[in-house]
Here is the input.
Amino acid sequence: MTSWDYDLIIIGGGPAGLTAGIYAGRARLQTLLLEKLIHGGQVMTTDLVENYPGFPEGISGFELSDRLRRQAERFGLEFQVAEVKGLKIGPPHKLILEGRQLTAGALIIASGARYRRLGVKGEDELTGKGVSFCATCDGALYRDQEIAVVGGGDTALTDTLFLTRFAAKIHLLHRRDALRGAKILQEQVLAQEKVQIHWDTVVSEIKGTQVVEALELKNVKSGARSTLPVAGVFILVGVTPNTDWLQSSVPMDEWGFIITDDQMATSIPGIFAAGDVRQKLLRQISTAVGDGATAAFAAENYLAGLHQR
Here is the structure.
């Protein structure tokens, strides 16, 4: 049988990767998790997670991530801080790191995705303090308040409709003079009394001391500037998967999300994907956790099959 450094290597330390590590550790697989920064993924930017089951009062993103990590360590998961630069398909599969290589019988790619940002002053400083990238995560925090949504595609329109359940008023800011989302979504948004659309408008600055207090706006056609007081802003201009390092070595869709089956398996034997990095309907902590558990179980079965050959 082919030898390798680890039975399983997990790339990414968010909820999907950490959950996969818990299940792999319980299966007694020799498993390594690689994370280029710190464990936790996007959840680390969330002050309060209110929609993850089992925490009726909510839990901070940091504490949830820390609990997942400690649980994985308890079952023997090994961690290394390292950035994966590339992949060579095996068997065994080979990961290219800075100055070294690692081999594994199976891989779980859980490198996540990143929200596209506006790149304006105040965005980074107030993320999690009124700046949000997820309506289903944070919408309920703005009950009966005035908020803004930035975007004009399907996600922005769908989430604007969702936010009407909570907010008193929603300012939809779009840099063009026509929305880009599906016509039926446009019709539903335009019919909403709670929604005011600001055409040809961009955010030039997000203002606030401890939390978001107002947005500085600019009309891209007239150049006119204005200030819009809001309690929060949802930036919904797209999500980019962290798959650049794969260089098309694994099948992806047109946006770069990894294509898997319901067992989280790619079309390449021994390579699985879990969490926000894969093509899926809903990107939430709860779905990432489910993906991670499934991927680890599928990887365990795959490795068991190799041993039986």
The CA atoms of residues 148 and 171 lie 4 Å apart.
